[in-house]
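Posting this for the archive.
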Amino acid sequence: MHIITGEINPLTPSAKLPLYGKRIVVTAPINYASRLSEQIIRKGGLPILMPTIETCYLSNYAELDQALNRIDAFNWIIFTSRNGITAFFQRLENLDIPISVLQNCQLCALGKDSESLLSFCGRVDLIPAESSPAGIITELRKIPHIQEKTVFLPAPEVVGLPEPDVIPNLFSDLQQLGMKVTRVPTYITQGLDKNIYSVELSLIRQGIIDVIAFSSTAEVESFLTMVNSHSDYEHCAVACFGPYTDANAKKLGVNVSILSKDYSSFEGFAEAIAEFFTQASK
């Protein structure tokens, strides 16, 4: 073992770590990029931050505020991202709505996002075994009389990019269960200007980057607006965090070499990237 008590062992030669010398572009938004980068560093890699999207506050809160003022009418609140959790609870606080209004709501979060939900309200009622929208549906289907329930679905407002199909498909699947779904924009997801990444894009074109790591479909879509063609990044292995990002990346014409089997945490993503190079070296 090269890692002890959750920390990097300073006595371990870096050349012994599986991602030693590997340059990995991380396209996730800053709050996610820092956590993924930490896991890459633990395995000896050299993360290069290049967030292709950012998340930010809504410009108009009318629809969200209307929903939050009657939030106690919902049986379920289903969070699909840490950003949605943060934006939801920050707006509750801004409106001086006490967390106690959620006492009759069942709260659902995916994987490590549940830690964020716990920090805001002290409880999580459902963490699906599979950390995905499909996992949510699988668990809800087991609950008696679920078709009688109402659900609030905090969602991103996607600006300047095609909306990935993840949230629309989840919305449709919840409706097919018979649930009454209210989807409300809670924060904005938008692409970033490629002009701020002239250095990083040059490194990619030169073949100096070993891996481009995507953690969401929106990151892939925005990245593709920053390059001229597949030839710009053909020397890089592409890694995707989970089957949804993988499937959508392939639909967009991206060749995916690495898919994390454990997509409940970024530790699993970094492990998948490390395993790819370990296998390649054999």
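The CA atoms of residues 125 and 232 lie 45 Å apart. The first strand starts at residue 3 and ends at 4.
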